[in-house]
Amino acid sequence: MKIAVLGYGTVGKGVYEMIMRTEGLETGPVLVLPAECTEDFMVTDIRYILEDGSVDLVVEAMGGVEPAGSFCRDVLLAGKHLVTSNKAMVAEYGIELAEIARKREKGFLFSAACGGGVPYLHNLSIAKESDRILSLSGILNGTTNFILDAMQENGSSFEEALAEAKALGYAEADPSADLSGMDSFRKILLACAVTYGKQPCLAADVEGICDLTADDVEVIKERGAAVRLIASGGLNDDGSIYAFVEPKLIFKGMERSVRRNFNCASYKGENSGLITLFGQGAGRYPTASAVLRDITGIAEGKLGMMPEGCEKTGEINGSVQNYFVRCMSEDSNGFHVKEVWKKHNGTVSFITDAQTVEEMHKKAEQIRKEGRRIFFAAVE
Amino acid sequence: MKIAVLGYGTVGKGVYEMIMRTEGLETGPVLVLPAECTEDFMVTDIRYILEDGSVDLVVEAMGGVEPAGSFCRDVLLAGKHLVTSNKAMVAEYGIELAEIARKREKGFLFSAACGGGVPYLHNLSIAKESDRILSLSGILNGTTNFILDAMQENGSSFEEALAEAKALGYAEADPSADLSGMDSFRKILLACAVTYGKQPCLAADVEGICDLTADDVEVIKERGAAVRLIASGGLNDDGSIYAFVEPKLIFKGMERSVRRNFNCASYKGENSGLITLFGQGAGRYPTASAVLRDITGIAEGKLGMMPEGCEKTGEINGSVQNYFVRCMSEDSNGFHVKEVWKKHNGTVSFITDAQTVEEMHKKAEQIRKEGRRIFFAAVE
């Protein structure tokens, strides 16, 4: 099987190396930008790959929605299998690409787009065939977990922890998609699509960690909890789905043992019970290993993981939880306060009575619109 | 697809129920002992199943090596697919059954035999196709984990914890295979067979938890560690394999978060890094869910997980570790003592210098032959 690669960054280079080392696989051309074209095997025009009849499969590892999405469509239309690690692109075009792949009887897999080296989507696509998957959840972003872990364990400020993550290569130059929770949300969105054939909308309840302070961590630590950024998804009783991302105070849960930039991803099957997978959610070789698994899967006839008829749908986040909130004293009136944890410098931190996810996110949005700060986290 | 079941105990009954509830699957006859033959769908002679041309697949959930093994051979020879949850039987006959299945182009899967609801063997059989699996390890026995957790958290004695496990249905009437570590060893043996095509011998370095006392747990707890029973396997540098079971003192590892009767199972891929799976290692529905996954897998064309040419081989447990040992003072002379932890009533507990797994297990065997007690555990 001859394989072309689009992009020669962290993941693309790892994939290229691994294809070279793997028996039965052969490297084809690698698409790069003109300025990066330094090797014989590199090309700068996608047409060289599309028109190369000897290329059986294309790995897209460019990142970004476009031109990656258009290239991927052309790859499938040219009758080649497609494997991608690009979550933003699959969130946008995955359903359409799956349709094309199905009609052409070509493979389209994207394991590396959710969980990196952790085989989450693969296990979901297997488990849902013989079990009813009730819910999904996980720590799906290594950058934010590294920051939270550093703040918790070393007492670092948010800024210090972010700087350390950047220095170690765990955070990109522009980490906003990570910090805002959007990266985690795109991943749970893909997990919902694979599991339920329903893909939530991007304009959802997504809360990141930008507003967490060292003081918050201190207060939370004193009560015996740790903060983790958790993506959740699942089935509501009426058959609709829920999907959201928010920080969570973990007292005893497994998520607490997820250190540094590791990921964990769980599903709860009606029969299997809770299954949790831990591993490296990013990095060259872990991510490339997920791409290689997909390539091997296609070679063995596993062509798809996006269910037929998958549709984009709204999500309903109506489940209720208690929340930890830290806000200005004046804003606390908007909450049913169950227990005050700390008052300090005009701010107050407290636990709320149970309220829906939607309510909580809306309240925070309103407070921020008025120019004031708030941090909140669900309570385990 | 019509499916017959051999055995109607915990697992067999769960499988039967789940088949009834699953679209596309149909229940066939269930083999039981004459005394248990209470329903129309039950038969007491395997020939009714072997000669029933409408049965496509047989699930063996009888337990025990015989007659299960002979029945399984006959099932495959009769041209039917085979799925089993029976680790003792697969450890004995798995290689032979895989050969027959391969020749007849029939499916033979046994996911439920290792990890219960945790899809460990499935993930190993996928991961090894595109990665080099360097090592395997895990908590593969829920009964012993429940006992260790109860001793650690509640200060129970071994006997109290065992009684509680029995009362809750987490330990069988005769728990000796669990307590001795043999159940864990059979499971890591299957993981080695699936991953490396080499199946270790049963007469190996297997240490259970029978000799652990509440005093030991107290001493270990004071130092900040917890005891877990860990099964290990992997590749030696010379291409031979290692495989052993022994208690381990965990200070920080993930295994520490495995509570009650849960399992965890890890593999380290050269590219993927460490991947860990957590979940319920036993119980009716978790185990039956693994059987159902195998059935679905066979329906979709995944016929085998035992590699072609898999062979039984000796294992070489030459890696070195430090050990925690508690023994009679007179026996401590046989060890290079690095640090004494406690002296009490003629016994001493200490940490040894690094020594090989084989040496440690041999020393303990010798001491027990002379009628004296010893407990030991590797140090993380």
CA-based shape of chain A: globular
* Tally of helical runs of chain A: 12
**Share of residues in strands of chain A:** 25-35%
Please report the distance between the alpha carbons of the first and last residues of chain A: 48 Å
Largest interface: A-B, 41 and 41 residues
Name the structural class of chain A.
alpha/beta
- Runs of chain A in which pLDDT lies below 50 for 5 or more consecutive residues are none
Q: What profile does the largest beta sheet of chain A have?
A: 10 strands, mixed
How many strand elements of chain A?
20
Please bin the fraction of helical residues of chain A: 25-40%
Mean pLDDT of chain A: 95
Task: Report on the architecture of this protein.
2 copies of one chain form a homodimer. In chain A, strands 7, 9, 10, 11, 12, 13, 16, 17, 18 and 20 form a 10-stranded mixed β-sheet that branches. Chain A is an alpha/beta fold. In chain A, 36% of the residues lie in helices and 27% in strands. Chain A is globular and about 70 Å long. The interface between A and B is large, with 41 and 41 residues.
